[in-house]
Amino acid sequence: MNNSRGQFSSRLGFVLAASGSAVGLGNIWGFPTQVASNGGAAFLILYLVMAFTLAYPALMAELIIGRHAQANAVTALRGIATGRATRLFGTATGFVGLITAALILSFYAIVAGWMVAYFVASIAELLGFEPLARWLTEFSRERNILFTLIFSGMTIGIICGGVKEGIEKWSTRLMPALLGILLLLIGYVMTLDGAMAGIKAYLVPDFSQAFEFKLIVSALGQAFFSMSLGVGTMLIYGSYVSKQENISSLGRTVTLVDIGIAVLAGLLIIPAMYVAQSNGVAIYDEMNQLIAEDRLIFTVLPALFDTMGAAGLGVAVAFFILMTIASLTSSISMLEVPVAYAVECHGINRAKATWLLGGAITVISLVIISQFDTLFGLTITLTTRYSQPLLGLSLCLFAGWIWHRNQLIEEITQGFENAEHSLFVKLWPSYVRFVCPLAILTVFLYPMFS
């Protein structure tokens, strides 16, 4: 490996960085209400099954390709191509992945900026600056621009440090902080009236819905997308892993951490919603569905914090720190995808590449803000609904069909004692060849025909 690329210095550093990439806003504001609205623990069980039987094998495809190539996505896929056609396919997949990661980061930075704004608003309210707090929580172009710039600057600053002094250093600080805040908030919410009703909605299964095909597809989609798959983030992180590490074990650990934090987020969000309901806050929308995503984070929970008096301000500060950390650990992995390509393929200094690409992505964010109603939803749909699953499919095709099987097995067995006798080596190559592409296609095509 070219040591100038950088390398994770420890197993823990990689696990925290990779799980930080996977643990984003979707885990905290999307997953809990998916569970509560779709059969409670029945959906949770399906999610766990899908995460280990489908998302984990797809994750391993990215990690194994990355570690084998020790390079960015474009170079990695070109390197395992077997002819001119597959080389072109690999090049196209790599570049589309770079563009997709950049576009996801462009809207993600806007949403993450809202989290930072609400955190500052909580501090302002705590200090008695009510007009400032109102401005920070009201939707406006000026506020969106300011806090998008702030969050983008934070992301750029971390990536400038490289793998060890940037990604790993901050991941090993931010992820324990995220987990600690999450546990503290869960402990506090559990003491409030209404929390047990939320626990029941979250953990008591309704098996009447468990075998609906729509629910199965939703669980599969949540498992796949919650692990940050398809855009090359896990591939590039895998490329910074030592050949002496057991890559399949690392992948399992990342999957467990991601699932664990998603489940813990449910133990916070759903009880908090029912606490809000017991305090007179509406938690169901006009269609009698639990309020989810942005309305949950920016309407229901702030209304709950308001009912808590002085304690609510402290809880609000902690909660929006939690959301900001979750945003940041994901955003740094997205920016690393195009930066790694620029550094390795064009010889650009890392700091310069980071500022150039980070700045260009921030400009895209500002364009989206200027035409928010038109471009925000469109960018989300194009990247997460179409591009991301097709990229995930392409990576599985590379691992399962294009890459020579002997080279694939040889890469898996590095750092994996007695690998040839393991269930993983016996099953995974065929699994990623047949089952994963079919599952991803199902998630992609189902909404079109349902």
From TrEMBL:
One of its GO terms (cellular component) is membrane. The keyword Hydrolase does not apply. It is a multi-pass membrane protein. The keyword Transmembrane helix applies. It comes from the Bacteria. Keywords: Membrane, Transmembrane, Transmembrane helix, Transport. It is found in: Membrane. It holds the Pfam family SNF. NCBIfam families: Na_transp. This is Sodium-dependent transporter.
